[in-house]
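Would you mind writing out the residues of a protein together with its fold in token form for me to study?
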Amino acid sequence: MTATILRGAVALALLGLTACASQPYDESGEPAEVVAKPAKAATIPHEKLALSYAEQGRFADALLQWKILSTLYPNDARYASSVRQTEEHIGKLSTQHQRTGTSALDKGDFATARHELLAALALDPGRTDVLEALRRIEYDRVWRIQSAKLEKLKVTEDRKTTSIGEQERSYFELGTLMFREGDYTGAVREIQKYLNSYPSDVQAKKLISDAYVKLAAQQRQQGMLQNALSNVEQAKRFSSDNAATNSKAEQDLRMALANEYYEKGLRAQRNDLKLAIEMFDKALEYNSQHAKARVKLAEAQRMQKKLEEIGK
């Protein structure tokens, strides 16, 4: 047993000496920093993947592999050349798809146009001209849907004609796009312009109501409770859809505002009774059932009255 332990200790000592012998040192005698270089064999999987992706037409994926190799071996001209050639090929293919898609769009072939433009965008996501063409397709798609719905609406007294002017059409298109992109303030502004001409359009009223709800949610997160409440009230005015949800949101905002003014009243009560009374009044304006605000309001009013009597 003792011999076994001894042999183990000797082996460990020899390993330690070997490790010390292989450790490089700098001129000061301190261990030098060892920078590991990537093994050349490591390039083979990346090269195989790049070639395989290129054969499958997945040039963006191939480009990524060539870029990895170019980063690992910046002095290897082959990889830099492969990156450049692949980027040029992607540019040419993307332009071909873009031209085919634009031509189809001009002819009214929206399915082909969308397919080609998405292919161009997949190859080169940074092409703003392709994004603009895709927006045109979305504009037309939304407009066709909206036009079909408008045809089903009855002609009302405030709508003397069934045709929609180009200006009104542009308002609705822009408002719809802004809503989809999360610009709810802009969506409200543009859809309101449309509703000024067609106030009975149920779909437009639903859209502006939804925009008000989204805007209120954003403002509540930012602590803009009063603005959020105003927008929820506007949403209820334009559409009765989701009435229960909107009413609950309105109730929650009123309670939050009441609590906010109640806290302001408590802070003001020590130094400014008049301001405290205003704050408690405001709290009850938003929530008439706020019991604490009602109690504090009564206390502040009594104290105010006593101070006035003392001052006489």
Q: What stands out?
A: The chain has three domains: 42-148, 163-239, 242-312. The chain has a mean pLDDT of 77.
